[in-house]
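Example S7 (structure tokens).
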């Protein structure tokens, strides 16, 4: 049976009579765990009158909280409101507002607020905090904005945390940044003083909206109004400057925060290092990396890898090697990305022997090289005719249980067939085929292709021999 929702109090009363509704009957019974439940009132239950008590506000609050249906909770709330000398607790209003909000009955929330106001209950900031949270979760920025003015209607001065949360909701929706800015500018007129978080929310929003100049002006306003910026304030602007490729402005902000005693966070350093590397200011990037520890922020793997990548991109693999050595000295262990980037940089500069050395080192530390790493080394050695070195790379990778790319096989096989007098290479080939056939399907397919290729090569050689004998 579908329950018919009833919203006004008079309708609830008509619905609950005669002679005594299931709702009121439920309210009258004790909530104890006894098998036989006794009515809380006796004579008045059989002949209910307008003066009947329905229990304490705490009991009604628990009953409202126990309802899974928001509309039923609202009916209980309304019915209790009609009883003489009954006054809901503050928690009952909060619980019902949350239930209605999660059920998306937003129009009924206004009704509850009106009853709360007329009941004479003291309005607290917690009620409006819950209300803003409901509208934020429902993605209703206009409702969240109206909550600010609803507070003023209740003669309640919004707190900075209310302002900040409303601003966060507004800036998270496209097209509401200007309304957020207007609310910010009018807040002081309503005796709401913006704090550091307020400015951070707006600066972040304007930076992401590509309005760096407005964000920087807000930063200046902070200082004028004696609002102390924090590490996040500086980081937001540093990221904004770097996003606009204005790394010099970002470095000035870093110096300013250091001079004022702030310790930049890791993300600020990561942003600066990445920006300096992209601008090929590698000397400044390395100097900044060295300064980090002195300024109270130990470089982590992300910072080191950023510098290694920057040097490798600019063809300075030997400098990248030095950075990797510094990592170990400073107690930061290289990871898979560190080795892969460095080996790629070494191969790009033709330093394949050094690359092979780091390949063996990374495998010895338990890292599995990506097939692109082994492919670069094999390709490099084969291009210089160093077949045995290329075979050594393949052997090291296969012993570690890794898969070789088909391109790698094609390169190594063509070199082997040119140098097939070498007993060592023949033996390696036989071992490789055995290992591959025992692997997964992909590797077996490669092994079968390898066998077919070698068979065709052998038939071609025999045919050439027979042709030469025929002409003798």
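Recovered sequence:
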């Amino acid at each position: 049976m579908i329950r018919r929702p009833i919203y006004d109090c008079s309708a609830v009363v008509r619905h609950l009579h005669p002679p005594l509704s299931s709702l009121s009957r439920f309210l009258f019974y004790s909530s104890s765990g006894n098998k036989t439940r006794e009515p809380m009132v006796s004579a008045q239950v059989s002949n209910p009158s307008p003066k009947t008590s329905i229990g304490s506000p705490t009991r009604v609050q628990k009953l409202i909280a126990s309802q899974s249906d928001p509309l039923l909770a609202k009916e209980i709330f309304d019915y209790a409101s009609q009883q003489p000398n009954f006054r809901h607790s503050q928690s009952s209003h909060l619980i019902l507002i949350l239930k209605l909000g999660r059920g998306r009955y937003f129009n009924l929330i206004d009704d509850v607020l009106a009853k709360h106001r007329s009941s004479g209950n003291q309005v607290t900031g917690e009620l409006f905090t819950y209300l803003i949270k409901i509208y934020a979760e429902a993605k209703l920025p206009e409702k969240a904005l109206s909550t600010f003015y609803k507070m003023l209607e209740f003669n309640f001065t919004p707190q900075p945390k209310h302002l900040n949360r409303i601003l966060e909701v507004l800036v998270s929706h496209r097209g509401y940044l200007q309304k957020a800015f207007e609310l910010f500018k009018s807040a002081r007129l309503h005796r709401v003083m913006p704090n550091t978080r307020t400015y951070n929310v707006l600066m972040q929003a304007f930076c992401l909206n590509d309005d760096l100049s407005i964000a920087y002006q807000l930063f200046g306003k902070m200082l004028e109004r004696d609002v102390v910026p924090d590490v996040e304030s500086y980081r937001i602007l540093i990221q904004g400057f770097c996003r606009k490729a204005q790394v010099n402005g970002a470095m000035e902000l870093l110096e300013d925060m250091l001079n004022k005693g702030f310790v930049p966070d890791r993300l600020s350093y990561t942003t600066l290092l990445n920006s300096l590397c992209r601008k090929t200011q590698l000397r400044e990037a390395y100097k900044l990396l060295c300064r980090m520890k002195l300024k109270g922020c130990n470089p982590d793997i992300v910072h080191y890898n950023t510098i290694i990548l920057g040097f490798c991109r600019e063809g300075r693999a030997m400098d990248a090697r030095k950075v990797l050595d510094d990592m170990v000295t400073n107690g930061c262990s290289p990871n898979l990305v560190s080795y892969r980037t460095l080996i790629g940089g070494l191969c790009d500069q033709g330093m394949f022997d050094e690359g092979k050395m780091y390949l063996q080192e990374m495998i010895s530390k338990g890292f599995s090289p990506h097939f692109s790493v082994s492919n670069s080394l094999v390709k490099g050695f084969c291009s210089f005719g160093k077949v045995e070195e290329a075979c050594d790379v393949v052997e090291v990778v296969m012993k570690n249980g890794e898969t070789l790319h088909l391109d790698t096989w094609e390169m190594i096989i063509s070199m082997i067939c040119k140098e097939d007098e070498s007993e060592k290479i023949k033996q390696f080939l036989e071992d490789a085929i055995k290992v591959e056939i025992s692997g997964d399907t992909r590797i077996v397919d490669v092994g079968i292709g390898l066998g077919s290729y070698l068979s065709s090569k052998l038939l071609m050689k025999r045919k050439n021999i027979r042709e030469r004998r025929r002409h003798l």
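Notes on this example. The mean pLDDT is 80.
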